[in-house]
Amino acid sequence: MCNSQCRERVDGSDLETERKTKPMKYILMMNTMKKGAAPFPGWSKEDIQRMIGYMKDLDRNLRSEGVLVSAEGLAFPEEAKQVRAGADGKPITDGVFPESKEFLAGYWIVDVEAPERAYEIAARASACPGAGGKPLNMPIEVRQVMSGPPDEFV
Predict the structure, then answer these.
(1) Which of these, 28, 37, 41, 31, lies nearest to 103 by C-alpha position?
(2) pTM of the prediction?
(3) How far apart are CA 57 and CA 129, in angstroms?
(4) Cα separation of 139 and 97, whole Å?
(5) What pLDDT digit, counting tens, does each position of 110-130 carry?
(6) How far is CA 43 from CA 11, 30, 36, 75, 133, in A?
(7) What are the boundaries of each domain within the chain?
């Protein structure tokens, strides 16, 4: 246990050293397309196949580099449901996300030594080819996956 001001834990381990040397998990989120837009507007079959091939190669490369924890593509928002617990604890479902401008199309979870490495991987994903093979340069949101609550809350 350690508070936000200390550098050493009760077990004697140095918190700062651990943070600098321990791999950190990051989620890289690919938000794309506005709700109601065609998934690949005006793209040829070859363009779609090129994009899918690029993503498969990225997945293989990250696995061979030993940094990929998980990667998944997600179904379109039309298949999504919002779920809340009712007063009795049973699920209450609602339709899709009516206010969504974009949606989460997929994600990668990587385990890397520094945030800069996660940013490099996100840039590789961002450069995925689109129509005509031109890089999409889509935004990829990068956030650290927390292993637990901050020390000051435990």
Answers:
(1) 31
(2) 0.75
(3) 12
(4) 21
(5) 999 999 999 999 999 999 998
(6) 57, 19, 16, 19, 10
(7) 21-34+44-76+84-147
Under a CB-based contact definition with an 8 Å cutoff, are residues 130 and 51 in contact?
yes
Q: Does residue 135 surpass a pLDDT of 80? A: yes
Angle, helices 45-65 vs 115-126, to 10°: value is 160
Name the H helices within the chain. Answer: 15-21, 45-65, 115-126
Tell me the CATH number of domain 21-34+44-76+84-147, given options 2.40.50.140, 3.30.70.1060, 3.40.1010.10, 2.40.50.180.
3.30.70.1060
Q: How many CB atoms lie within 10 A of CB 95?
A: 10
Report the distance separating Cα 126 and Cα 135, nearest Å.
Answer: 8
Are 106 and 71 spatial neighbours (Cβ–Cβ below 8 Å)? yes
Nearest CA among 101, 109, 103, 113 for reference residue 142: 109
